[in-house]
Specification:
about 140 residues; single chain; 3 strands
């Protein structure tokens, strides 16, 4: 990401999912964490949850079918349920970049700025209910 030019207005992150076995709200969390990543790096974002997930070969369901995609509702599952997250439109003057599958795992499981729905990844050793921790996740 440091290799992006100074003028980043035309550059955006293509938000993707890297495993087809994820639950619906994992798709939402992956989008939230990648949106935060894009903002941190000063670029736009576009959620692109098509029929197939990213094939990273680092999860048994990598490259698998997106279980929530319905061709009858369009090419992008995200837009079936949610509004676009920005004004970035693929093919309309934006250069889209995507994180590799391993970077998606790192962001989702160990990202310092990531949102976690429960104790997993870097927080998997936590026990009991920690109200302040959950509040901090909601405020991110």
């Amino acid at each position: 990401w440091r290799a992006l030019p100074r003028n980043r207005s035309r550059h955006a992150l293509r938000i993707q999912m890297n495993h087809g076995s994820a639950g619906f709200f994992a798709y939402v969390l992956f989008a939230i964490n990648q949106i935060a990543f894009a903002r941190k790096h000063g670029i736009g974002a576009h959620v692109d949850y098509g029929a197939c997930t990213v094939n990273g070969r680092d999860h048994y369901a990598s490259g698998g079918a997106n279980l929530y995609h319905s061709p009858a509702h369009g090419a992008n599952m995200w837009e079936q349920y949610f509004q676009p997250v920005s004004d970035v439109v693929p093919g309309a003057g934006h250069v889209l970049h995507a994180l590799p599958s391993k970077a998606l795992w790192k962001l989702h499981q160990r990202g310092d700025d990531s949102v976690f729905a429960y104790y997993y990844g870097v927080h998997s050793a936590k026990r009991g209910y920690d109200e302040a921790w959950y509040r901090s996740m909601r405020l991110r």
